[in-house]
Amino acid sequence: MSVRHALLALLSEGPKYGLQLREEFEAGTGEVWPLNVGQVYTTLQRLERDGLVESDDTTEVGPQKGFRITPGGAEELAAWLHTPPDLSSPPRDELVMKVLVALRVPGVDVHEVIQVHRRYLVELMQQWTRLKEDEAEFDLSLALVVDAELFRLDSVIRWLDAAEGRLKRAAADRATESTTAAAPQLAPAPLPSLRRRTGVRR
Amino acid sequence: MSMLELRGVTKVYGQGATVVNALGGVDLTVEPGAMVAVMGPSGSGKSTLLTIAGSLEDPTEGEVLIDGAPLSRMSRNAKARLRRRSIGYVFQDFNLLPGLTAVENVALPLELDGVSGRRARAVGKRALDDLGLSERADRFPDQLSGGERQRVAIARAVVGDRHVLLADEPSGALDSVNGEAVMRLVHDACKRGVAAVVVTHDAQLASWADRVVFLRDGHVVDQTAPPDGPESLLTIPGQLQ
Q: Cα separation of A184 and B21, whole Å?
């Protein structure tokens, strides 16, 4: 989340004071991301240094000092809005790592590990949905933020579901192979080994 | 007292080499006004659980109680009456009768239960009004959008004095906005005291429930704890740069 660009966006509506910017930032993000006033002023000073905003002709930074966006600031904002975030390489996802590690640790039931995470994620989604149910109908910004979080958590659960399905199929394939080879198969089929290295973003 | 209770419900299909254990000793309790979601992958027994809970099928072992009354001690006629009066069903593909208008579809269970046509339609019209479908009452299913058809199906499921609502992937074919609208309706029905069971593989639907039960290979393997209030979500550290 870029405070810098959020402040430029608010100033693109017209000149504003620092305290006003903080209040509008919090309201505009459904009050999900709190922002302290010191952060607002530090960011405004940097924006002014970079020529992206201008302030009233007073020396003191404080509640009465007004700010407005410059043409350079408007260009910077437009460029930021149209630049996709870097999603080109997979992030180092802790949950993915845990499932991969669970496959290798003797005595660990990977399905149980998956279920622990699935339950936690569904519980989180229940909390987010309560928020939407109570307030989102009346606050578009909050509804958008809550939807984004629900879709993000949902995608993780879908990955867990897909992973579990893939592991079950792989175990069944192993069992079939072993039966075909007429080898006695008393223990549960082993889980597939990890064959490929994947480059991750650090 | 719970509105719906499953005690040790087991369902076995077939015999010998073709035997399928669809459910194995499932316990489930739903209080009046509560929504329980049952999540699980295809083949986990979700739909079987729902048809047994709704008395559309008998369990191989175990007992189902609706409002404290065990289904196993009811005659076929008594079960049919219970289905007409107390239990509402919502299916993924709506199951509306194409030759009947929206209000006739909603009124049908009441008419089948002996309520006069005129009165049944008046009650059906009120149920549609409550769901914002007043203008659509005289349209046929093929003149309605998918979201509207599912709202009609929910109106039909809760019309009269139904107090158990059973839904199988109720927003499966709908987009997320219409899916959310459907879950709000189920949620509103629960606020009026209806006990609802929604089976789904969709976590976004399940997250509307008070409790989520996880089904795997016919067994309940886990369930969510009662959710905390949403206040704890309102401060997310480390998100700002």
A: 25
* Residue-range domain boundaries for chain B: 35-55+75-225
Q: Given B39, B235, B241, which is nearest A2 (Cβ)? A: B241
CB contact under 8 A, A115 and B235: no
Q: Which of residues 165-204 of B touch A (CB under 8 A)?
A: 184, 187, 201-204
In the β-sheet with B69-70, what is the strand arrangement from edge to edge? B20-30, B4-13, B61-66, B69-70
Q: B39-60 as b/e, with b when 16 or more CB fall inside 10 Å?
A: bbeeebbbbbbbebbbbebebe
Torsions phi, psi of A119, nearest 5? -60, -45
Relative to beta strand B35-39, strand B195-200 is parallel
Of 3.40.710.10, 3.40.50.300, 3.40.50.620, 1.10.10.10, which CATH number belongs to A3-81? 1.10.10.10
Question: What's the token pair of residue B108?
Answer: 């049908």
Token pair for residue B85? 């009066």
CB contact (8 A) between residue B204 and residue A150: yes
In degrees rounded to 5, what are phi and psi of residue B24? -130, 90
The answer to whether B12 and B172 have CB atoms below 8 angstroms apart is no
The H-assigned helical ranges of A37-109 are: 37-49, 71-81, 94-104
Helix axes B146-158, B117-130, angle to 10 degrees: 120
Question: Domain boundaries in chain A?
Answer: 3-81, 94-180
Encode pLDDT of A125-134 as tens digits. Answer: 999 998 888 6
Distance in Å, alpha carbon of A131 to nearest chain B alpha carbon: 5
Helix (H) or strand (E) segment spanning residue B79: helix B76-85
pLDDT digits (tens, 9 = 90+) for B102-158: 999 999 988 988 899 999 999 999 888 878 888 999 999 999 998 889 889 988 988
User: Which pTM was predicted?
Assistant: 0.79
- What ipTM was assigned to the predicted interfaces of this complex? 0.85
Q: List the helix and strand counts (H, then E) for chain B.
A: 7, 10
Architecture of the domain spanning B35-55+75-225: 3-Layer(aba) Sandwich (3.40)
**Are B169 and B199 in contact, with CB atoms under 8 Å apart?**
yes
The H or E element containing residue A5 is helix A3-11
Q: Which helix (H) or strand (E) holds A121?
A: helix A110-135
